[in-house]
Please model this.
Amino acid sequence: MKARLFLAAAAGAVAFFPSPALAWGKTGHRVVAAIADTQLSGLARAYIREILGGAESLDEAANWPDEMRSNPEPFWQKTSTPWHYVTLNGIIYDHAPPQGDALEALNHYTATLRDPNASLSDKQTALRFIVHLVGDLHQPLHVGKCCDKGGNDVKVKWFGKDTNLHAVWDSQIVDEEQLSFTELAAKLGRHTSDADVIAWWDVNPRDWISESGEIRDGLYPPAPPKGAKGTKGAPAVPELSYGYVYKFTPVMERRLQQAGVRLAAYLNEIYAKPLATEPPR
Model:
């Protein structure tokens, strides 16, 4: 019943982000899951294997909520769209809008994993969403502000090609180094100290949201001078290239590291002790 009410409340709402807003892209989400996988407790790993089965890894599950947005069903085309981000002015999260948001979805799916009456299919959906949403909340432009749709409306050039600031942070800055997700996850794992893990081990999503909100505004490039013209006389837009990469790659990598650590912490917290019943079969 709670699930149906949650879906009904979200259905029919207008999202503030356009549907292509996919946090981190495929590489980033897989990196987050791969980092988390190295820090799972034995109990959490056992429950995850029971839910996903032996053929699906955590990093494979990470992009499923984005991949399913190609499904023409109304749930994927309309209802679930606002569940990939939150919107706030400043850095303190207040409450979800009527259509729901990423934090409300995270809470909903966490309850599903803990529900002894939930079906295996529901738990699979819940786990895949949780893996994805923890990554989303660490992408600073998925903690959007009014009213540029998380940077989707901020037009920029990335090494001379037209794009927008949101797309830069979803994929382009992550993929600039041209590492596979396993290579990038291994690199970031080597550069995550025990002290980092201790400092970042935080299961409160509101803290992650506030961190992203603090980072977000600093990612916006200066606007060109008023009246400046770009290619073919069009209004000039910020040109992002090596200088932006140099300045913000450490920020991007730190958020991926933190998301991986927090995902492990969050899943370990859910499975801190055996649940009331055996895992679903």
Remarks:
- The domain at 2-270 is CATH 1.10.575.10 (P1 Nuclease).
